[in-house]
Write a structure and sequence with these properties.
Blueprint: H1 10-23, H2 28-57, H3 66-86
Length: about 90
């Protein structure tokens, strides 16, 4: 594992310490790794969205089987559940 040293103002260090204490992280490293994993997931979601938009904007018809739609719904439910746990999803109802 690689060690990374960063400089922070006292106010940010205090914020991180509070987050570690109140959010159940074992230490600052766990907290930072969690933030980085969230950033990676957001980036992956953005890339996927861009690819989907690009594919839909071509105007070409693509035949999809019933199995494709079933799998897509399952994948969407998994993604929704993951984001619901992180508090990122808001109801539109």
């Amino acid at each position: 594992m690689t060690t990374l040293t960063i400089s922070l103002p006292d106010s940010l260090r205090e914020f991180i310490d509070l987050e570690v204490q109140t959010k159940g992280y074992g230490n600052v490293s766990e907290y930072v790794r969690g933030l980085l994993r969230q950033a990676q997931a957001r980036e992956a979601d953005a890339r996927l969205e861009a690819l989907l938009i690009e594919g839909l904007s071509t105007g070409e018809e693509t035949p999809f089987s019933a199995d494709f739609w079933i799998e897509l719904k399952q994948d969407a439910a998994t993604i929704l559940a993951r984001h619901s746990k992180s508090g990122k999803v808001r109801s539109t109802r």
